[in-house]
Amino acid sequence: MIVIYSAYYLEEGDQYGYGLLARLNAASILLHTKTGIISKVLSRTALIGRCLFDRGVLVTQSGHRIMSVLKKMNFKVVYLNHGWGTKRTPPHLVSKNRRELKGYRWLRMYTDYVICYSDFDKTYFLRHPLIDDLPMPEFVPLGHPRNDFLVKNKDNAEYKSEVRKKLGLPIDAKVILIAPTFRDIPQYNAEIANLYQEELEKLQRCLDERVYVLYRPHHYMVDLKYLKWKNIIVCDSSSFPDPRPLMLASDMLVTDYSSIFVDYLLLERPMAFFQPDIEKYQEVRGLVIDPDNKVHMPGPKLRSLKEMLDLSENDFAAYDLEVSKKFFHKFTDGAATERVSNFINNLLRTL
Prior knowledge:
By secondary structure, the protein is α/β, with parallel strands linked by helices. The strands form two sheets. Strands 2-1-3-4-5-6 form a six-stranded parallel sheet, with helices on both faces. Strands 9-8-7-10-11-12 form a six-stranded parallel sheet. The chain has two domains: 2-143 and 334-350, Glycogen Phosphorylase B (Rossmann fold, 3-Layer(aba) Sandwich), CATH 3.40.50; 148-328, CDP-glycerol glycerophosphotransferase, C-terminal domain (Rossmann fold). Helices cover 31% and strands 15% of the residues. Pfam families: Glyphos_transf (PF04464). GO terms for molecular function: CDP-glycerol glycerophosphotransferase activity. InterPro entries: Glycerophosphate_synth (IPR007554), TagF_C (IPR043148), Teichoic_Acid_Biosynth (IPR051612).
């Protein structure tokens, strides 16, 4: 039996699928990714050649042509998404991008199982009039293996201090992680990137040695030019492939519509939301949660980034992080890797 792990990218610190692949009972485990930052990554042709006389499971993070080929070879396809709980998927404007639409159609047509966070996820994921003619895969809320690391280290003061030391941060400073999401249209994305530059510049003028900011742009946003700030450290994916250490090193999160806040709920730390373009974002991408619902977005809304420095405990009193965590996550025990590996191993036994 073969397991194929396919991803857009593999994080440098997690070369084996967040520890998942090491738990699988397969004779061969093959890696297939668009960015071969790890060794032994196979091309599509080589990979298919290895699978001609065997059966197995494809674990994928995207919809692509290899899914249809492997399905014809009696492989099962398991989709492991990188983020859950916030955005319409496909987006509202998927009709304007034929390549993206084709990917979503492949994903819905050839996926057997979707590993998700909760039953809420099946109410919106892979639902759009342009793909609703296709059968739906089965949704299995097991959690994501990558989040086990967050749960197991949320109270690890030694690890938090170690990451801060590597970043050059004072151990006793207040550290705020700012992590916006990507906008689907390039020009729109550039406008938001410029807006954040301006907001960060204003924020820097208000910071002192007691407060530091980690700015984490979306992993699609690389090679941008940033000003050098004294108290703001830019942590893009080219320098910090894995956002989890940044999450654990921080005391608070500021984001917009990014699903990072759903994972951040596992740390039980406060968060706030800066959404200067919410009307346009709803039009272009669309949200599956209500921004005014205190369970869906459990934190105060900011009109500018510098407003986060004025927040007090009273501003967070109306939000129950535990209630929000239970809404987005069926499991919060740090055992997703075990559940997902057991699921795939059981699937292998049926082939």
